[in-house]
Structures are given as structure tokens and as C-alpha cells.
Amino acid sequence: MMKRGFQVAARLGHYRALLRAPCIPPRLDSASAFASSSDDRISRFCPEKTDLKDYALPNASWSPDMLSMYQELLEKTKTDGWIKLPSFKSNRDHIQGLKLPWGLSVKTDYKDSCIFTRSIQMEGQGYEYVIFFHPSMKKSICLFQPGPYLEGPPGFAHGGSLAALMDETFSKTAYLAEEGLFTVSLNIRFKNLIPVNSLAVLNVDIEKIEDQKIYMSCTVQSRDQQTVYAKCSGVFLQMQLEKE
Amino acid sequence: MMKRGFQVAARLGHYRALLRAPCIPPRLDSASAFASSSDDRISRFCPEKTDLKDYALPNASWSPDMLSMYQELLEKTKTDGWIKLPSFKSNRDHIQGLKLPWGLSVKTDYKDSCIFTRSIQMEGQGYEYVIFFHPSMKKSICLFQPGPYLEGPPGFAHGGSLAALMDETFSKTAYLAEEGLFTVSLNIRFKNLIPVNSLAVLNVDIEKIEDQKIYMSCTVQSRDQQTVYAKCSGVFLQMQLEKE
What is the pLDDT of residue B194? Predict the structure, then answer.
């Protein structure tokens, strides 16, 4: 384990250097860099046929509120250009055939790994969420129902569980819309606690792109928009994946 | 579930109002408010005798790096005033006999609830961490070994898993040192990815207290301090719990 850490330490220097860079970070121009359009990325991310389990589908734990808003948004996928994103066990499943740039690879056992926000697999106990993405509007809506295993203050979701899901929703939006790969910064202001098992709605927008950095905003509120739970801004680094 | 959400919505208005307040938020002065010293809180938080499982003890998944740094810090608890904090299944266990202020209570089943950062209970797969706290220096050190269920980019910890642990370490430090109860804001800058199964060390300091807000900083780095993984500032609201 320690050895693996040291092996990647030097490579991580590239990432650190880019994050520090006051000017435009260089685009990868090696033969292995994989330049893709938003459509390419969406096709790869949302395969029409797959045996992979999609964790972003309704189950018995979803509240009536969550279910009805899901159905509303699902209707919009038929007419308004919204896409319901599938959610597989690992990010590896979403970028099959591609890998991180700069030799940023760590040999881990796929079988044992799991994306953090899907790691509690008992229905209703951990994260229940689904992301809808709109390619041309460059925005996402995430429906979030925190289960009792996401607790912080007794009876309420841990602020960190919301922070993680904001990062995750930013991440998927940034990647699909603009090749955003790495979180540079998150700036979160918490306004109200989210009761366990209630519905919170995350609205994510891409605000601008400058120097290969994607600037995004997120507002988290109740379905009726009467309670704001949190606001967040996030910056992501725009980089190309490489062919595996 | 929806009903419960609406029941607390009005009460949450108090929290929102305090977070918005540009001036000093009022201290609770009701008979139920529980003013305590840092020593009181530490005694309650770290009971000498308890049947509760402490999740912050070494297990077979801990790397040699994590184990040896744990032993080093444990030695300092004997001579240098450091305290190794226990970590129970729920925050309810740490504040027995007390409850959140402003009627912020939601009836949830204790049996089914779990603090977010202890929700993956298979050793080594999720969060492995332990917090050491120094009351007079008002600082904490958290040893963090992310397991493969905390994955974001393939082979690396999800930024959100680190964000959640920074919030958690801030939270425990703010509560024990200065009656900090709620996260107001987190401002995180990510510098490098943390490889899964490696050791990251969080150093948390209380910087200042103004208008009942506790300002804290956190640096996350490798044990040899050669790699900075992230830096974070956090603000917590200083409030008293109430007697149950």
C-alpha cells in the first residue's frame, strides 16, 4: 500500500502544478489524449445496452415526493432535452476504454471498489439520488434523499454527505458538458439542516469557463423552494482522458 | 417522511436566521440550555466505561504507516495532553442526555441510524480514521486511510469523502473546544489526489472566534509532509445544547 502511494506521488506533481498554475494549463497533446465531444461522452456514459446495475432508479425506499419529482423530470427527457443519467458502481464503468491522464493510475481491484456515493447499498439507508442533465443548457438537477446512515446531527444529514453529493453532481456535469475532470475547489455555505429521509433538490449550473477551469454553482433546496439548505460554488479542471 | 420534514421546517428558520445574522447571534438563555466547560464536554464525549463500540481503534486493515503514526500519537496522550477520541456509531452516543437546541429534533430510529463517516462498517473498505484532540492547543490531528468504497477517480479517494471527513474533524474539534455545533461554511482547495489505501494526515486548528463563530483551518498532507492533498477553512456556529 505504501509502495503504491510512492509510485504515484511523482505523477501527482503534474496535477498539483496545474492547480497552482496562474496561467493556462497546457492541454494534453500526446497521441494517447482522447479529445471527445459532449455527445461522445454522453453516449459512452449512458450506454443503451448494458448489464451494469443502474443505482439511479426508483426503489421502495423513495418517498412519494422523490418519486413524483422523478416522474416529472422523466417526462422532460421525452420532450425537453433532459437526460436521466445512469449511475453505475464505479466511475470505471462510465469511462470504459479510457483512463486518467498523466499516468495517474493506481492498480486497485475493480471488484472491491465502489464510487463513494454508492457505497451504502442497502436501499434507503444511505444515498438515494438521481441526476438529470441538460447538455445544451449545461445544467443538472439532482434529487437527493439522505437515509439514516448519512446522519450528522441526530435526525439530520451530515453536512459532509451533502458536500460529497454536490461534488459528485458537479463532477458529472463538468465531465459531460465540458471535459471537467478534477475538483479544484468547493466553497459551501450551509443554510439549513436536511432532515433524514426528506427530499432535497440540487440545481447545478455551469457559470463560465476560463483558462480551462469550469466555474459552477449549486443551490440545494426543498422541492417547494421555500427552504434553502445550502449554496455552493465549485471549480473543475478541464482535461482530456487518455485511451486505455 | 414528508410530514416530518414540514414539522421541522419552521424550527429550522431559527438556524437560517442565525446564519444570516450580520451581528452577534443571541445565546440561548432558556432553562433548558446546557452551558458546559470544555472538560465537561470531553468527559461526556469520552466515557471511561462504556459498552459502546469504538470504531477508532486499529484493525487488520490499517497500513503499517497508519499504525505507527497512531502509536506515536498514542504515546503523546500519556505525556503531552493529547486525547484519543473514541468514535461511536451515532452522535447521540457522544452527547447522551443532551439534544440539539431550538426544538431541532426529528424522531428517527436510533437502531437504524449511523453517523455518515462510520456507515461503511466492513474493516478497511470505507473510512478508517482516528482523531486526536489537544484541548489547550485547540487543535486536532486526524489519521485517514480511505478504503476502496470511498473511490472517486479510479484508484483515488472521492473529493467528497475527504470533504466529509474535514467537516467531521472540524465538527468534533469545534464542539469539544468551543461549543461549536453547526457548520456554517467550508472552503476547500484540492491540491492532489489521495490514492486509495494510503495515509493522509489532517491537521486542524482553531484560528479565532468572533461573533460566536469559530474559524478553523485544515491542511491535509502525506505523513512526510511532502505532498499536500488539500487545504480547507471552515466556520462553525457556537451554540449550547439543551438538556434532554
Answer: 96
How buried is B18 (Cβ within 10 angstroms: 0-12 exposed, 13-18 middle, 19+ buried)? middle
Instruction: Indicate yes or no: CB of A104 within 8 angstroms of CB of B188.
Output: no
Instruction: Tell me B165's DSSP state.
Output: H
In this complex, the residue of A8, A150, A187 whose CB is nearest that of residue B187 is A187
* A4 alpha carbon, distance to own chain's centre: 26
- What pLDDT is recorded for position B107? 67
Phi then psi dihedrals of residue A237, to 5 deg: -90, 130
* pLDDT of A3 over the 60 cut: no
> What is the reported pLDDT for A112?
81
Tell me, yes or no, if B116 comes closer than 8 A to chain A by beta carbon. yes
Q: Which of A11-15, A61-65, B108-112 has the lowest mean pLDDT?
A: A11-15
Strands of chain B (E only): list them.
Answer: 83-84, 98-99, 127-134, 139-146, 180-190, 200-210, 213-221, 228-238, 242-243
- Please state the rounded mean pLDDT for residues A126-134: 97
Q: Which residue of chain B has the CA closest to A8?
A: B195
Q: Which residues pair with A243 in a beta bridge?
A: A98
Helix (H), strand (E) at residue A242: strand A242-243
Does A148 sit within 8 Å of B109, measured CB to CB?
A: yes
Inter-chain touch B148–A65, beta carbons under 8 Å:
no
What's the predicted TM-score (pTM) here? 0.89
Is the pLDDT confidence value at B184 over 80? yes
State the smallest CA–CA distance between residue A35 and chain B in angstroms: 18
Inter-chain CB proximity B168 and A158 less than 8 Å: yes
Separation CA B130–CA B145 (nearest Å): 9
Buried b (16+ CB within 10 A) or exposed e, B205-239: ebeebeebbbbbbbbbbbbeeebebbbbbbbbbbb
Lowest mean pLDDT among A151-155, B45-49, B93-97, B176-180: B93-97
Amino acid B44: pLDDT? 87
User: Is residue A5 scored above 60 in pLDDT?
Assistant: no
Q: Would you say the ipTM is above 0.95?
A: no
- Pairwise CA distance, residues A159 & B93, whole Å: 19
Measured CA to CA in angstroms, residue B82 lies from A218, B74, B102, B140, B201 at distances of 39, 8, 33, 9, 16
Amino acid at position A55, single letter: Y
Whole-number Cα distances in Å, A234 to A135, A170, B41, B88 = 19, 7, 35, 32
Residue B64: closest CA among A5, A3, A2, A7: A2
Q: How far is CA A66 from CA A25, A70, A129, B70, B95, in A?
A: 41, 6, 9, 43, 32
CA torsion sign for A50, A53, A56, A58 is: positive
Option in B153, B161, B188 nearest A100 (CB): B153
Q: pLDDT digits over A179-214, tens only?
A: 888 999 999 999 999 999 999 999 999 999 999 999
